[in-house]
Batch of 2 targets.
Target 1
Amino acid sequence: LRVAILISGSGSNMVALAQSMQGDHPARPCLVLANDPAAGGLRKAEDMGIATAAVDHRPFGGDRAAFEDALLRPLMDAHPDLIALAGFMRVLTPEFVARFEGRMLNIHPSLLPKYRGLNTHARAIAAGDTVAGCTVHEVTPALDDGPILGQARVPVLQGDTAESLAARVLPMEHRLYPAVLRRVAMGERGLLTLTDGMVGSA
Ligand code: GRF
């Protein structure tokens, strides 16, 4: 299976996914595609021998459709079977998502359905939550709303800041996303849940 990974920044989730596909795995990364030519993840992908491309979204202004048409070109040239959004910070139109319905995954740094959108860790702390985490879901036209494929939980500790909580969640993202990708690539379904130190499937 060919997996295209879309990034916007450092690409730490992309690295975790790419590393997980090395060796005995039914999937391989076929492209790392960024919406910013300066995305740090592009260099990391090159160092791992993965094809890369970048389409800067800024020249397109608010014309999402035009940006997405430009994004489709390198994406379709890579003939992906699956698309993994990994720290990809652009909202995709329903038309773009519809092209990949059922074949596009995303990781979101909250326990969906709580805290769709941005600033998830600050919002969890402000709400006084004692548990936080991340979610891998199928991408559907509504933002951060598709069927949940996996979740990982971490405790929210006294005195946590958005940064300290993010630092606790991010390593769990790097465990959850590869585990869910492997199951999807194997054609398995079912919700995968991780808690600190444990792997269990409900
Ligand atoms: C992080 O905030 C992560 O929680 C979210 O996207 C951001 C960047 O991730 N998934 P990455 O390091 O670019 O994968």
Target 2
Amino acid sequence: MLKVEGISAHYGKIQALDKVSIEVEEGEIVTLIGANGAGKTTLLMSICGDPRVSEGSIHYLNQDITQQPTSKIMRSGISIVPEGRRIFARLTVEENLHMGGFFTEPRTFDERLNFVYQLFPRLKEREKQRGGTMSGGEQQMLAIARALMSQPKLLFLDEPSLGLAPIVIQQIFSIIQRLRDEGVTIFLVEQNANQALRLADRGYVLENGRVVLQDVGSKLLTNNDVIKAYLGG
Ligand code: ATP
């Protein structure tokens, strides 16, 4: 479904990605783990068209999207839940969801709204509340719901568990699993390696802009290097 081959990306003189290759098959949950500054967000943003990659290629559903504008990539069925949620704080829950469904056809809009409200009943209860006044966990739910409004085939989640209480993290991870069961392919970027790898069909480890390990999720969980570096010893 997604094939990233040997991409490099720079911010001025800083090289953030160095010949990174990853693949995501339809129906999978693929997890990318890595420390702060490893290049995880840069990889997601590069797939979405920004920053432009300096070498390599990105194919999505057999189309070359390497040089495509972000708006076109977003309309092709990829949706992103950005790091830090980035909800519209002054807009209500309902208005945030309308923003997410901006390109959704009017005849499927209500269906999508019902779908996300059924997935997150808390958001339905709070549809008139301003996004910025909600708790961190509720804001994360809203960010996921907003991304789902465009009916993505492939969903990118950038550190969805960051800063959340363990019980809320459990809820978020079980929603991710449910989305996969409903047919959404997931590319999950996480520092919470333990839980993210448990959920994953396959995983990649990114260090200093390079993929240093890749395997099925269960094997990475028992890999000594992964245990030492990402699973607390
Ligand atoms: P984190 O887990 O802390 O979010 P990350 O793995 O997502 O980290 P990136 O945010 O992709 O890492 O950063 C990779 C490298 O690129 C870092 O060295 C970072 O300082 C640099 N970088 C990221 N964004 C920019 C930017 N807009 N301008 C300059 N350098 C940047």
